[in-house]
Amino acid sequence: MRELKAFIIAAILTVAAGAAAQTVPGDKSAEVDAKAVFQRECASCHGEGRLGGQGPALLPESLGRIGVATAAETIRNGRPATQMEGFGKKLSDAEIAALVKFVNTPLRPMPVWGMEEMLASREISVDPATLPEKPVFNADLLNLFVVVEAGDHHVTILNGDTFEPIHRFQSRFALHGGPKFTPDGRFVFFVSRDGWVTKFDIYINQVMAEIRAGINARNLALSDDGKVVAVANYLPNTLVLLDATDLKPLKIDTVMDEAAKTPSRVSAVYQAAPRNSFVAALKDVPEIWEVPTNGDSAIVDADKRFPVRRIKVGEPLDDFFFDPDYKFLIGSSRDGTRGIVVDLDKGETIASINLPGLPHLGSGIFWMYEGHPVMATPHLREPAVSVIDLKSWKTVKTIKTPGPGFFMRGHEKSPYAWTDVSLGPQKDTLVVIDTRSLEIVKTLTPEPGKTASHIEFTRDGRYVLASIWEMDGALVIYDAQTFKEIKRIPMVKPSGKYNVFNKITLSAGTSH
Ligand code: DHE
Questions:
Q1: Within 264-375, where are the H helices?
Q2: Nearest-atom index, ligand 1, CA of 409
Q3: Whose CA is nearest to atom 39 of ligand 1?
Q4: How far is the CA of 30 from the centre of ligand 1 (A)?
Q5: Residue to mutate (ligand 1; options 15, 176, 506; most atoms within 8 A of CB)
Q6: Whose CA is nearest to atom 14 of ligand 1?
Q7: Which mutation among 360, 454, 491, 498 tests ligand 1's pocket best, with the greatest number of atoms within 8 A of CB?
Q8: Which burial class, exposed, middle or buried, applies to 10 when counting CB atoms under 10 A from its CB (0-12, 13-18, 19+)?
Q9: Residue identifier of the C-alpha nearest atom 22 of ligand 1
């Protein structure tokens, strides 16, 4: 979790590019031909152009997360449980320092990643015509969990009744964000930070198709009917729509302001089912984009089938989520101390919300409190959970927690909401909040000293699965009513876990 902290600091301070320019007294790295060392030692796995291959892309946009010290340490000692060997015996300190600077230098010019490149990367592994109608295993398909094991880049399909793993497979390097399920829960789509989109069939436990939709991606969304995938990219500055059947690109939007002068990264994209649209926030331009999720498939011209509606906002947004009716968007910027509420029909900002501590809004959840719908979100910078009234947009309560945290979960059948405090000194603690009193009623320490994070309920809300987010980590299963531990399953740095039913029914207690 040291890595996580380093990366958060990096994300907030945007140190990656600046770090490339730093020099340390006695540093001989400037005398090294870093490009030559890279080509000799690294290019075969990470690609000659640093865009990735068997190993991940080595670009400031990807590496800002891990920080300079961790990058040097990785080159020197390798990464456990991966094919990244240590180069400490082969390379001098100066060569390692030079390599760190080299990979933290932005690529200029930025390579093109358009239709041609995407199509060349696309692989279909299973012919959809050969698919069986029934799963190859016996379990309640809607109570399965998809668990991302970030430590060695694997995914486990877990039976949510017996808590036994059904299948485990290697994923692309560094999956990020929630995977998205088709309406029947059968197919699941993942995206990696390097822009690889993977379609997986849970019935046969096989990867169906893959495509690299970008060089550095944020997240993906799937249309309500399961037919179109949208991918938000940082690099290049694109919003990409794919046919969910075979991942063929349908449209690539180069993201610019209306005057076509300022390019922008895409902060995140989500589907808004009642609106039949994808909604994306832009990171460098104060606009929200809304695009029809499917349009008329008889229309050949992609610009006409998926026209972009621009909604102007006061400042660029980093993250957002919707109210339960998808009428309002609640967004925040990484630098700001306030959230904004945008009426999506009117295209107007109608309120601002007090959100002082950098909320991870994608983690927001809802429940009814004293007859009112409220949303709650943890903060990355403040030891608090904010509870906001969704009618008045006022803060109902700021619940002080033992530390800042990332994730929050509830369930319609449980009166409790769970959150982590993994960015603070008590990173090993999980906090349980009573949604009726807005009081903390329990704190749990799954394993003293080890980071506890990311929670998800079973389909029926009876059990809670929490991660011990370490290389020698585990999923810990608790009774959601008594908070007693039921079972522990060893896993390699399990990060997010996603219950099929809660996801496809858009449970108010989980991320969408
Ligand atoms: Fe995430 C979801 C943004 C750092 C693990 N994270 C998301 C989403 C966004 C986001 C917009 C929602 C996407 C979705 O589900 O479709 N995350 C950000 C950041 O801006 C931030 C702070 C910095 C960054 O550069 O990305 C960030 N995130 C992290 C991490 O450091 C985490 C802990 C480890 C990692 O994997 O990189 C992390 N983020 C996650 C996870 C989810 C997520 C596990 C899905 C949560 C869920 O339950 O849906």
A1: 302-305
A2: 48
A3: 177
A4: 35
A5: 176
A6: 177
A7: 360
A8: buried
A9: 8
Residues 498, 504, 509, 511, CA torsion sign:
positive
pTM listed for this prediction: 0.90
Any atom of ligand 1 within 6 Å of the Cβ of 265: no
Which residue minimizes the CA distance to atom 49 of ligand 1?
178
Residue 192, amino acid: S
268 lines ligand 1 (CB under 6 A): yes
End-to-end C-alpha distance for the chain, whole angstroms: 25
Do the beta carbons of residue 403 and residue 428 sit within 8 Å? no
Task: Spell out the per-residue pLDDT of the chain, length 512, in tens.
Answer: 344 443 343 333 333 333 444 445 567 777 889 999 999 999 998 888 898 888 888 988 778 777 788 899 999 999 876 788 999 999 999 999 999 998 999 888 888 999 999 999 999 999 999 999 999 889 999 999 999 999 999 999 999 999 999 999 999 999 999 999 999 999 999 999 999 999 999 999 999 999 999 999 999 999 999 999 999 999 999 999 999 999 999 999 999 999 999 999 999 999 999 999 999 999 999 999 999 998 788 888 999 999 999 999 999 998 898 999 999 999 987 666 788 999 999 999 999 998 877 777 777 899 999 998 999 999 988 999 999 999 999 999 999 999 999 999 999 999 999 999 999 999 999 999 999 999 999 999 999 999 999 999 999 999 999 999 999 999 999 999 999 999 999 999 999 999 999 999 999 888 87
- Whether residue 298 contacts residue 313, with contact meaning beta carbons closer than 8 Å, is answered with no
